[in-house]
Hints:
The chain is built from 17 helices and six strands. By secondary structure, it is mainly alpha-helical. The protein has a domain at 55-349: Orthogonal Bundle (Flavocytochrome C3, Chain A, domain 2), CATH 1.10.1130.10. The strands form three sheets. Strands 1-2 form a two-stranded antiparallel ribbon. A two-stranded antiparallel sheet has the order 3-4. A hairpin with a 6-residue loop joins strand 3 and strand 4 (290-291). Helix 2 crosses helix 3 (63-69), helix 15 packs antiparallel against helix 16 and helix 16 packs antiparallel against helix 17 (427-451).
Amino acid sequence: MNNMLSGKQIALICVVAVLVLAMGFTLGRMGGSDINKTVLERKPVTPIAGDVLTMADWANDYPLQYNSYMLTETSGPKPGNFGGNILFQHSEYQPEMLTNFKGFGFGIDYNDDRGHYWAVIDNKETKRVNPGTKGACTTCKTPYVGVWYDRYGWEYANMSFWELYEEVPEEEPGVGCYMCHDPETMDLRIIQPALLDAGRYLGVDFQKAPVEDMRTYVCAQCHVTYYMDPESFKVIFPWTESVSATRQPGAAEPNLTVENIWKHYERVRGETGIDKFFLSDYKQADSTVDVVKVRHPEFETWSMGVHGKANVACADCHMPYQMEKGEKFSSHWMTSPLRTIDRSCGRCHDKSDEWLLDRVMQIQDNTFQAQRLAGTKIAEAHDAIAAAAETPGVNEAKLAEARELNRKAQFYWDYVAAENSMGFHAPDQIIRTLTQSVQYANDAVIAAYQAGGRLR
């Protein structure tokens, strides 16, 4: 019997070896050690027997999750040029905001957000709140909102901000476990009534979504844009003009583009019914443009980006799995993935951490430059409109056109400026949005010049 291998046998062995090595490399990058698998293993859970609203009672049974959550208190700057939990005024780096938000609270105080731990503290200390501030402004800051809604319904939104917060212990962090987890089963769940309302006109039952989707939907309770009904102060998500969104096979995905969000505001303008009349959050002090303020639309931009389209959940990147004391758990730091590139990005991307960080920074730096360009042009348009309004014999029709153009320009700009990823969630959509904003603002300047007779 010939013990020598034939050429075909040697070739076959080489092919198998290459395939085994390739598979091993791929599994290693995608979580072969079982650290980063998206598949959730069902383990025995411990119900919370104490005060489900306080973090301490959860910490006793889930110390690893609690300790990772508490990192937000002291984590400081992060890699890259944007974000972190350092207090600073956005207007220090974008002075055009002082013009664009003139006449509104954000023109007085626009501190950067510092993360979940700081939610209640920063909410109470911002100069944007005053003795008359309504309870609606507590909606995304504390798990007590679930109790208030159960007790008062939407009436809590029209109650005193300060009286509601008297129920929240001073030492209690902001966003807590109860906001996302059922204390009996630890299942992910929704307590924010605004998201449940939005689901009804999107065609989604967020309470019955599969766990893979809930790992995003619990974040969508708060990381969205919204406005408040001018009479009841009920919190409303402007999604009525988006298509039906479910995860069923063949169903349409949410189409939460800036255009569709804007269409919602145009539809409810002057209407009555579910949304009632809503024109603006404030009038810009000089131009009297009716401005709609955008609030942190992370879910909307994520849904339009490549990660959202690929069903990569918020938790996959912002709460990656880790091992500690022999236990695998999801990090509750809920911070920028740039702090945990190896676990957040490395399971899908085979580039080095340095390459991935550089890629993100390029996207964010480019977005910031475009954002500054749009914001500055909008500020110029406010000034041009104000000057035209003071001109004797001003063309009122053209002046109204200029105001409407700048109203839209500022909404498109703010859709990016208020969003926390600095363009990363959907780079192509974000740059397109800012390009449109610059065009609308430029058209507003031209219309203002025509209204005042400076241009024909």
